[in-house]
Amino acid sequence: MSEHPEAPAGTTGGTGRRRVLLLAASAALLVYVLDQLTKWWVVSTMALGQRTPVVEGLLWWQFIRNPGAAFSLGENVTWLFTLVMAVVSVVIVLTLRRVRSAGWALALGLVLGGALGNLTDRLLREPGFAVGHVVDFIAVPRFAIFNIADCGVVVGVGLVVLLTLLGRELDGTRAADRTAPEEEGSRG
């Protein structure tokens, strides 16, 4: 017997809810820890600006400190990115309370881990609190230099877009399944 007999098909009860929250927390923690460990490694072993080939012509490590957003946009409003990342993190945590879908849990967990990874840099790195520069080091040809947190955000947002295009709701149901009975009833 389900803990929530009135719950729509495809949703989960209390145990399932805990599982999706655990999935979100695990994804966030994994991205956050990998991000912070790789940044620690870069700061401890590389000189600022140093470039180290990984796959000749395709991938290299290049240590930079980014005061802005992607492609160093907004370098003079670092505090604004700090505020945005803090708000995004809070919104994701509040949204996770409604999530019953593993796909949404994974997507939001990845974004949360990435946002918290870069927020940590903004809060704790030089030049000071709330205006710290993000450590970036992953470089590919003709693209921005980025980090693991950025990867988590991009993959997570990609999953959000995919889930939205597929009509998947936070509770695991499909938007089309919800509207179909209502439309049939209005035709009669």
Can you characterise this structure?
It is a single chain. By secondary structure, the protein is mainly alpha-helical. The chain has one domain (15-173). Helix content is 56%, strand content 10%. The chain has a three-stranded antiparallel β-sheet. Strand 1 (51-55) and strand 2 (59-66) form a beta hairpin. The radius of gyration is 20 Å and the shape is elongated.
Question: How are the SSEs ordered, and which strands pair?
Answer:
Blueprint: H1 14-45, E1 51-55, E2 59-66, H2 78-96, H3 102-124, E3 134-139, H4 148-165, H5 175-187
Antiparallel strand pairs: 1-2, 2-3
Helix pairs in contact: 1-3, 2-3, 3-4
- Unreliable residue runs: 1-12
Helix content: 55-70%
Largest sheet, strands/sense/barrel:
3 strands, antiparallel
Q: How many domains is the backbone divided into?
A: 1
The strand count comes to: 3
Q: Round the mean pLDDT to the nearest integer and report it.
A: 88
For the biggest β-sheet, the strand order reads 1-2-3
Order of helices and strands: HEEHHEHH
H/I helix tally: 5
